[in-house]
Amino acid sequence: MQDDMTFTVDPWDPGYSAALNAEALAELDATSAELDLDVEMSAADWRPVTPDPGTAPPDVLLIADGVRRIDARVWTHTSDGAEPMPGIAASCAAGIVRCAPGEGAELAAVEVSRSLFSASPHAVDIAAGYRARRAPGSGMEELSLALQRHLTRLEVELAVPHRAGDDLLVVDGPLRGRAHLPRTVGFIKTHHTAYLPAPQAATVSRLLPGQRTPIFLMGTSWRRHAWYLRLPGQSGMPWAGVVRCEASAELSRDDLVRLADSVSHALPPLAGVDYKDPRAPQNLIPIGGLERLLRHRLGDARLLYRALRSAAARQPDLQPVP
């Protein structure tokens, strides 16, 4: 071993996927996204941006998050002789945390939903408390997508009644399905795709805690503005503490800059710490606490599975239609 070799250890618990996908890091030039890198400044002039000290953080920060769990795989049957169709019985929970200076963080709302997702037009509610909902197809990916869309709707419905004044809503995950909400930012902790070309990606690596990249516009199957922000942390890993923030594609440049600077003031003080959270600093302290609460509210998976089995056993056997 050479004496001048050094290494760093990823602070995230290895039980979680890495904050930065190694293959994405190795292929920074490879992306199918349409990019406009000149939104805030010319792509050739990209450099770390220190948020304007004259831009204040929001008076009230609302954080929305949700968790999901598949409780059982199921098959739906009909009496017309048609092939049984697969589905999933799933639980999800959404919550809102309200953060205000001098008041700390408090739970504003929680809602739990249990659903049977199936592409079958004949699916009905299950007696164990699972409401039948249509999925676009019978594949596992389509069933999972239906579950995720339902959770997104749940988060939106929960957040809207708690909006007031000039608050800021941060949703854990991409902004998709929520871009129409005013003063709302998506918060992405892990990087599975490298969207920036190498010269601009190098700007991300140079960010100091609290700094962000210039704003850019990205389009995949949907369009949104985005920027990268580095949260404070101790690791020397590439892109350590870096998160991606997303905002509506419809915002003006001036509104975007104010929003990005306000977010860059508001989020670093909420960064997770590694001795409390295996996904620190990207997993914000309010998000980590909310996730633990929501998983508890999902209920005991073994009891729910048993309830589903019992409900299935109590059903009458279907007789073929003559």
How would you describe the overall organization of this protein?
This protein is α/β, with parallel strands linked by helices and 322 residues long. The protein has 2 domains: 20-58 and 167-283, no CATH class; 67-165 and 300-314, no CATH class. It has 6 helices and 10 strands. The protein has helices at 22-26, 140-159, 198-205, 253-266, 285-297, 301-313; strands at residues 34-36, 61-76, 85-100, 104-118, 131-134, 168-172, 184-188, 216-219, 223-230, 242-248. A 10-stranded mixed beta sheet has the order 1-8-9-10-7-6-2-3-4-5, with helices on both faces. β3 and β4 form a beta hairpin. The longest helix is centred in the middle third of the chain and has 20 residues, at 140-159. The chain is elongated, with a radius of gyration of 22 Å. The termini are far apart.
Which of globular, elongated, flat, extended, rod-shaped describes the shape? Answer: elongated
Q: Give the tally of structural domains.
A: 2
Please estimate the helix content: 10-25%
Question: Mean pLDDT, as a whole number?
Answer: 85
Distance between the termini: 78 Å
Number of helices: 6
- The side-by-side strand order for the widest beta sheet comes to 1-8-9-10-7-6-2-3-4-5
Largest sheet: 10 strands, mixed
Strand percentage:
25-35%
Helix and strand content put the structural class at alpha/beta
- The strand count comes to 10
What is the H-and-E element order? HEEEEEHEEHEEEHHH
State the low-pLDDT regions, or none.
5-18, 22-29, 318-322
Radius of gyration in whole Å, from Cα?
22 Å
InterPro entries: RNaseH-like_sf
Protein name: NurA domain-containing protein
Organism: Nonomuraea insulae
